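User: Structure tokens for this complex, please. No commentary.
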Amino acid sequence: MAKIDYRTRPAKHIQRRMLIDACRRLTAIAPLAEYRYVGFGGLEFLDFDLFHRAMGIASMVSIEKEIEAVDRYKFNRPFATIELRFGPASDELPQLDWSGRNIVWLDYEQQLDTEVLADTEYLSGVLTPGSVLMVTLNAKPGDDRGRLDRLIANVGEDRVPIGLADHTLGAWNLAAVQRLILVDAISGVVRNRASQTWFRQLFNFRYQDGMPMQTIGGIFGTPQLDDAIERCRFDDLEFVRRGDEPLTIRVPVLTAKELHHLNRQLPLKTGADLHAAGLKDAEKQAYAILYRWYPAAL
Amino acid sequence: MPPAGGSNSGASGDHANPDMRIDASPEKRFFVELLIKDIDLLPAVVDLVDNSVDGARRLRPDGRFDGLEVAITANPQHFEIVDNCGGIEADLARHYAFRFGRPADFHGVPRSVGEFGIGMKRALFKLGREFLIDSKAPSSSFAILIDVEEWEADPSPEWSFRFTEVDDNYQPSSPADLGTSIRVEELHPNVSEDFKTPRTLAELRIDLRLRHQVALSSDMTIRLNGEALRPHRPALLVSDEVLPIRRQMDITDNGSTVQLALAAGVVGASDHEDEDRDEGRAEDFKTPGEAGWYLFCNDRLLFAADKTALTGWGTAGPAYHPQYRRFRGYAYLWADDAALLPWNTTKTGVDQDSRVWRRVQQEMFTALRGVMPIMNRVKAERQQSAPENRPLAAALQRAKPVPVAELPPSTNMRAPSPPRTPASTDQRIVYTVSRDAYQKVREALEASSAAEVGRRTFDYYLEHEVID
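Assistant:
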């Protein structure tokens, strides 16, 4: 079943592997096994599989809003230690104990709306320093008439930045605005926490496996944790994005032979070019950035 | 030419030294009118009780107020408040108590309610035009009679009142004699009118009971026209299976510390409340009720039953809806220095720009979100399960109210989490046809009821027309 996902959603898979790579570095803060992973497992539990196998996280919670097929989710659960909770995230998140360190991935299929904002703000108020929060959103601007109205309907006028219009919300611009609103919401909560907490963005992914999607994420800290977080050396990771400039994951479709040929030239020596017969420059460049996380099974 | 008499005044000028001074002195009448515009009658009276409570706190730092009493008399002729809470020393009256606003060098009793140095004066001006204040403190006593008309007419730039009697060597015969009595005569016509109305007095009773519930719970006696007021004692449901949120923390801002205690949970369904009432029918929920957040600063209630965005409704989570009517949240803030607390000057709400308040607010949001799922599940359970099969409702039914101060600490709200069941897959159909047509179909079917006619005609269509 996992193979199906690699083939139909390769960009998402690459993003997942990058997120895991970044989260591995949390070991400078605390042993990874002390972290809990909270996500929306779906039927395939792909992220759970990775967080368990690649990071050794055992304590895991999957929230599933679909309550019609409880048995099917239970059957597909890959590890015994995944706690399944059925209900809307907005109901289930506040019922969890947040006193430990967590990696939370709110992997929504919807666009940014008041529900997403409320969940994100709730977590921003309770996640302990050293915890990581990631939010995935649909970023499709839709029909060019009514984009601004839809955004206002989704998040409320009080959240919409000044100066937007339908024509400035096309292409990836909705993603940019959604990131702005989301990060603003997180910072707003963090500022008012009783302890001196801050939030630092680490991820700003965009990708398109059919539908334009985006993932914003980052880490919560306090002044006492500054040194430990420094030791994580997140900035050494070439996919980390601290600001509005995103990493757009574009996945070239390659044959096994092409892959093999390209891999032998990588990592590229400075100034060198990738050679592969018949591949466009854009495809070669995209591959040079992503090859370490490119799924071998593709 | 300078104006006559101007030449010998140091402040006035000539060509080389023009008069730089601009008059900005306050006008008493305007000042008084402005002062009382911002407060309603009832909060003004509650403000006067604040002074008595602060006196009690000075007298009994341990917070046990048994034997202390505040008696309020309000009628169309006059208003009176008499307490045995220690009185005001003459020196305090001379230099601080009657100033409009608190001088910077004044340090009141720790955890006081009086903060702005305006409450008592404003309340008196709000009530009427003549005040008689009588105080017996441990080492001094005094009396003051203030005629507002006369005071306003006095053009002296220095604002002052005068003792009518003062004794700086007062020796009380017993501690029980110590106290303050304030009497207001010549009530404003609207005040007189209001004190004639039983409804206003009943509202005042509710206000006093709510806003001074902590003092009342600490065994202070507050009487209104002779009636001793009963304290409100907030309590939340607790059992082996049900545990509300109760947290305690220090909030530091600019090196100063405010203590916060917070409790949030649910209360029992009220006796007259039909649990199965349709929550979508707004007309069934006419009174706003007691649900919502309560905020106390140094044991004085600031706002009650708040269900607005201020406390997270419609912002941190869903807007208030009757399914949340059993929610109660209590936030208590304490600071030795009352200036650190986020109250507005009338003590009826918060100073929303206060950083302390924003932090408290954030904790309230989190707590509210923690209780909402329980109430959502109560609703879902009621919609989906028969009364005998509602484990969460049953658990809440078995739980008992426990006073907020006695709740064990808990960061989360705990309650049984019965498995969610999918919504019913049934679809109800209702339609109307002519009676004639119905009779014909019913006879053809030999059916005995409209329900049977409906079901069998549907089944017929399903069987003959629909491919499964």
